[in-house]
Design a protein that fits this description.
The protein has helices at 5-9, 31-47, 66-75, 89-99, 144-149, 184-197, 217-227, 242-251, 261-269, 293-302, 381-387, 435-443, 476-484, 512-519; strands at residues 20-23, 28-30, 55-59, 79-82, 103-106, 124-126, 164-170, 178-183, 205-208, 230-233, 256-260, 283-287, 307-312, 322-325, 341-342, 347-351, 364-369, 388-392, 398-410, 416-421, 425-428, 431-434, 448-458, 461-470, 495-498, 525-526. It is of the alpha/beta class. A nine-stranded mixed β-sheet has the order 2-1-10-9-11-12-13-14-15. Strands 16, 17, 18, 19 and 20 form a five-stranded antiparallel β-sheet that branches. Strands 4-3-5-6 form a four-stranded parallel β-sheet, covered by helices on one side.
Length: 527
């Protein structure tokens, strides 16, 4: 069906025109406004030259205006490319240079800084009033006044299921951002499954905490539109203050939250979760990083009436590829939380270095196949060919598989369990070691709040260095002694370094590069 996402999800409207589609607690937009504004924006984009299969970049701060903006781009038959408004101009230049957008949508704060990243001739459309800018009008291809004054024309959609819907840029090992291409079919497969599996209804209120340039936002943006529900958009400042975030969830009567695991960890550690809090919340989805079992135990003991799901999926597979409803709290702090079974239509396989399946219980690289698999990396056929392989497994048909670089095992009950990154594996004295296994052993020790292990060069040899957050000052030799009770001697870190808090990247994941640097600078206790 032409139009695909828009035709499937917004035409006709999934909710009454007056119903709130998105709110951040200060501004709210209705489904009627969403449909009207996106159609007007599509008309403007067509007038400035945007055509089918073009790409349109957005550099917008976190407000409800983002939702009608992406819908307007899709109604113009283009694909949207979110830019992080906090990124340095050099990164904008890299992304804009790679994706070659036919237009860029800006707000009052990003319009001028983006000027240096945009080639002359690329239209810049301002989603605020012209009066907010000191720039001359000839720099503004269109502004909010022009969009609102444009006629609401019947929009003819031409997007097909295999046209791109968005391109998300992630960090590349070479330092150049890589653009992951996701199609209309990919999103529909994911969102249709999610709305059904998590029983999302039109009276649900979904908390959005993920940045728009992050793949977890696909759930936040599209599930409410599919179900006719409401997106409750938390601004970035709220995620830094646990008490304020819970207050926002309560005031907005949030019923569903899909958040990064580290945010659940921070909330629990801050001591703000108590049985009386967030009463409307009924479903908690966590992913993006491994959640310590100790943290999940605390959440499930505090909120026995809520449903908890561990979700797993790389950007290259759109959103969630595997899912596990956690029906019982983990048995202990050292237990690994399973990432579950493949979602509807998706397939998973564990392969060895020769791309042969490994038996149950053995660790292999987790590979994914199915309709959620993206179209590869924009302008990078070599990287695409390395990561997206054609293989025939167990006598089946030849399928395209994405090599995640994640290591996992499959339990006898069919549940997959995440072990760690393939590139987080080292050999010490001929032994193959997964840092994730040492980290889990550290987390099982009383008083250890968080832990990370890195391999560093010392005297020409690799050695393991462990970093720990502890609840109070401890005798660190006791931690090493407890660790020796849990893992083989060859896995014991040579050094143990205490930190008040582990350094983390913008998305909440542990910054291992910073830890490697720190290991060279900090005096330590030898193991």
């Amino acid at each position: 069906m032409d139009g695909y996402l828009v035709q499937h999800y917004l035409d006709p409207l999934p909710a009454p025109p007056e119903k709130v589609a998105c709110t951040d607690g200060r501004k709210a937009i209705t489904y009627g406004y969403l449909a009207d504004f996106s159609s007007r924006l599509a008309t403007i984009l067509s007038q400035v030259g945007v055509r089918r299969k073009d790409r349109v970049a957005l550099c917008l701060h976190r407000t409800p205006d983002f939702l009608p903006a992406i819908l307007g781009i899709l109604k113009a038959d283009a694909a949207y490319v979110p830019l992080d408004p906090k990124s340095p101009p050099e990164r904008w230049q890299q992304i804009v240079g790679d994706c070659a957008p036919a237009a860029i949508l800006c707000d009052g704060q990003t319009f001028v800084p983006l000027a240096g990243a945009v080639k002359a001739g690329i239209p810049r459309i301002l989603l605020t009033s012209r009066s907010t800018q000191s720039s001359s009008d000839n720099e503004i291809s269109a502004a909010l006044e022009d969009i609102l004054a444009s006629p609401v024309m019947p929009v003819t959609y031409h997007n097909g299921p295999d046209d791109l819907a968005y391109v998300l840029y992630t960090s590349g090992s070479t330092g150049q951002p890589k653009g992951v291409m996701i199609t209309h079919r990919n999103i529909c497969n994911y969102i249709n499954w999610a709305v059904e599996y998590f029983s999302i209804l039109n009276d649900d209120r979904i908390l959005g905490t993920a940045p728009f340039h992050f793949d977890m936002s696909t759930f936040d943006l599209w599930c409410p539109v599919k179900a006719g529900a409401t997106l409750c958009l938390a601004n970035e400042a709220l995620t830094l203050f646990p008490e304020k975030l819970l207050g926002f969830m309560e005031s907005e009567r949030v019923t569903i939250w899909k958040g990064i695991s580290s945010l659940l960890f921070y909330l629990e550690r801050a001591g703000v979760i108590t049985p009386a809090r967030i009463p409307a919340l009924s479903r908690v989805l966590f992913g993006g990083d491994a959640l310590p079992a100790r943290t999940l135990i605390r959440w499930m003991e505090t909120f026995s009436d809520k449903l908890f799901y561990n979700v797993y999926g790389p950007t290259e597979a759109t959103g969630v590829s595997l899912c596990c409803q956690i029906k019982q709290a983990p048995g202990g702090p050292g237990e690994r939380i399973p990432i579950g079974h493949p979602c509807k239509g998706m397939k998973a396989a564990l392969l060895d270095k020769e791309l042969k399946p490994v038996p149950d219980g053995a660790v292999g690289e987790l590979c994914l196949s199915g309709p959620g698999l993206g179209a590869g990396y924009l302008n990078d056929p070599e990287r695409t060919a390395r990561s997206f392989i054609c293989a025939k497994l167990d006598g089946g048909q030849v399928d395209t598989w994405y090599r995640t670089g994640d290591l996992a095992l499959r339990r006898p009950d069919g549940n997959y369990v995440f072990i760690g990154r393939e590139d987080n594996q080292v050999k010490i004295m001929g032994y193959r070691i997964e840092m994730g296994e040492i980290e889990q052993a550290l987390l099982a020790i009383d008083g250890v709040r968080d832990a990370a292990v890195v391999a560093v060069q010392r005297g020409g040899l690799d050695e393991l260095v462990a970093f720990v957050e502890v609840e109070e000052v401890k005798d660190y030799t006791q931690i090493l002694a407890r660790l020796r009770d849990r893992i083989p001697a060859y896995m014991i870190p040579r050094r143990l370094i205490p930190l008040v808090e582990l350094p983390r990247c913008g998305r909440g994941k542990i910054n291992r590069a910073a830890l490697r640097t720190l290991s060279m600078e900090v005096r330590h206790a030898d193991g």
